[in-house]
Amino acid sequence: MLHAPMSPLADGPVCRLRSLRSVALTVPDPIASRDFYHEVWGLSTVDEDGDRFWLRATGTEHHVLDLRAGDVNALGRITFAVATPREVDDAARVLEALGIPLLRAPGPLDDAGGGYGLQLVDPEGRTIELSADTFAVPTDEPAGRRAVPRKIAHVVLNTTDIERTAWFYTRVLGMRVSDWSERQMAFLRCNSDHHVIALNQASWPSLNHIAYEMTSIDHFMRGIGSLRSHGISPQWGPGRHGPGDNTFSYFTDPAGLVCEYTSEVAQIDEDAWLCRTWRRTPELSDTWGTAGPPSSTIRSAMAGIPDLGARALVAAHEDYFYGAPETAGVS
Ligand SMILES: [Fe+2]
């Protein structure tokens, strides 16, 4: 009797993601971007090396944003926390068995935040880093009423194949779909936050936006006020989204990338939550009715420019990325 070979995913995903630690961005003028995020947005520079900058929020992560120079805007990397170096090594073995390319084998990370990790490539060429044992950083003094971000709340990724990409982030990396917005957006969680990644069906892969969590709705509003004092107005918001129930106010940074202040994201009870599919209506994307439609400027900035990342590496592993996965019905 013949048996089909066991899938390396038969025992579940390759790892258990604990949180989204940080995002790396490539921008043409990292000094201008650093000045914005440090002097206006509320992050603080924790380390620098020439024109590369690491900025932290007030939470426990060594840094949440890594800015480096490049010809055009691009998503450099998204880093997720796993619990132990052993889990990094175990993940590498399963990824290798799956035929998923590693940009970096498990080992010490030569990054300002230290740690032990690996880097893999997602189906559209994005670099995903899994890390453990990064440098511990005591949380800053309570921010009081200062309008400073606590952490990255979520990253929204434009994707050309939302079903396949959702399959990858759920089946391979173990995220769960909290909600769909029709078949246009998928909201993915790795912990109790409603989403840390959202996928948006689009014409090309790119970064849609990065959201920074403010401690409370009061801090959120103060943040908007603080930007106004620098002459910067929201390009969409303030408002509150239906999916995720979080507040939103969107801005563009000096590189033209979209950044968002948010707060009060829905907390998920893993045992009780039921994924639903939201209709895409103005009333549900702006439940307070305060934000109005997004400006053409912010829509264009959210679309971004095609970001090919390590697409060539993906093409070289097309057996896995374009052949095997059964993507229908991810929910
Ligand atoms: Fe957002």
UniProtKB/TrEMBL annotation:
The keyword Metal-binding applies. PROSITE patterns: VOC. Coiled coil: none annotated. It is an enzyme of class 1 (oxidoreductase). Pfam families: Glyoxalase. Signal peptide: none annotated. One of its GO terms (molecular function) is biphenyl-2,3-diol 1,2-dioxygenase activity. InterPro entries: Fosfomycin_Res_Enzymes, Glyas_Bleomycin-R_OHBP_Dase, Glyas_Fos-R_dOase_dom, VOC_core. Residues 19-133, 151-264 form the VOC domain. Its EC number is 1.13.11.39. Keywords: Dioxygenase, Metal-binding, Oxidoreductase. This is Manganese-dependent 2,3-dihydroxybiphenyl 1,2-dioxygenase. It comes from Gordonia insulae.
